[in-house]
Amino acid sequence: MSTFFKFLVAALVWLLFYLATFRGCQEELCLACDPPPSVTVADTLPEEAGLPVYFKWSDAEAYIGKGVEAFLQKQVTEGDSLQLLVITGLYFEGEKAVAGAENLGLARAREVARLFDGLLDSTRLQLRARQVETPEDAQSAPFEGALFEWVDPKSQSAVDQLADRISIRFPTGSADRVYAPEVDSFLIELATQLRSSGQRVRITGHTDNTGSAEKNVGLGLARAEAVKQFLVKAGVSASQVTTDSKGDAQPVASNATEEGRYQNRRVEVRIEPQ
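Below the sequence we write its predicted structure tokens.
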């Protein structure tokens, strides 16, 4: 074999080795530089969370989950023919309001009420709203946005004791609470508790939508101050009581009816955790 031919074979072998090595390095560099493939994480299905009826952040629509038929039937069978089913729509601070509703809670209650078409006459439904503490994951996860309670319409009280607050009703345009034995009884018991525990209490006044917003803020504050004065006269330190007013900004019922306006004329009492 001539020297020239040997040189040519050696050059071809070197060239093939170089090309193979360069291509391997190029591929490694591309893998190092290219971004990793995107991974789509499936949303947690509400059905998996066991929510037959659920809601999403700033959305009034009632979404239907697994077992909704049995859930609705259970609500219907728990009451009797003389009772009303109160549907309370929940909403959180920071949620956007929807058009045509006084707040998102009432809008949600109306959507849930539609689910009972054919199961309950609409005259046996009462719609309420309540602003509650915002869960940490409320903006990203589905949540229960409605509460259900059967009540006797003849036994509805001037005092509503809820899980996180107590509501006291007021007459139209007045800072004098509704006269009822249960109101004074509750306030006396509250004063006794506050004197012995030293706990603080926040009293917030609310109104219906009669009159201007400015006037209603003042009326709500007058109602809160009236309850504070009762507690102070009963021996509670004034420093334990904080008052404020939301006026007509946070209705718990529709102002379109007298019964709804009555529900909205209230003071809410919340004992602050120690």
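The two ends are 100 Å apart (CA to CA).
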